[in-house]
Amino acid sequence: MTLTGVAAILSVVVFATSNDIPVGEMAYQKLWLGRMLFVFVVCCLLSFCLNRKNYLSFPTIVTWVLIILGGIEAIWGLRQIYGLAVSNHSLYALTGSFYNPGPYSGYLAMIFPLCLYEWLNLKEKTERTWAEQGKYYIALGVMLL
């Protein structure tokens, strides 16, 4: 439950905006939060069905959800730089899913040490499982974004 639940909670922060909302318009925020509540409920129900045993600790789950969502935010920002996505503020070209570049850059700055820590921990292991190998490359890729 925890992995999908945490992913759903953190996705509300990342995906609470859309290109349907005009820049500066805040009236549709509750509509998007309602949609994200639906996503959260679906993810919680799936997690109850799929995860009957606890395989990962809660801090590990939170760390990896933050890393993955940081990668999504970094790609979103790159799309805004290259003109493939619209910025959420008329004065700034790069805002990610936020309305201001300050929280966006703060979120990405918070993700870098998490990626570095996980990457260094996984780098020390000589024989990694396929899941650890995937985590190694995800942490490296998000750190480089």
From TrEMBL:
Alphabetical keyword list: Membrane, Transmembrane, Transmembrane helix
Domain of life: Bacteria
Keyword rRNA-binding: no
Transmembrane segments: 32-50, 62-82, 102-120
Transmembrane as UniProt keyword: yes
Alphabetical list of InterPro entries matching this protein: WaaL-like
Full protein name: O-antigen ligase domain-containing protein
The species this protein was found in: Bacteroides acidifaciens
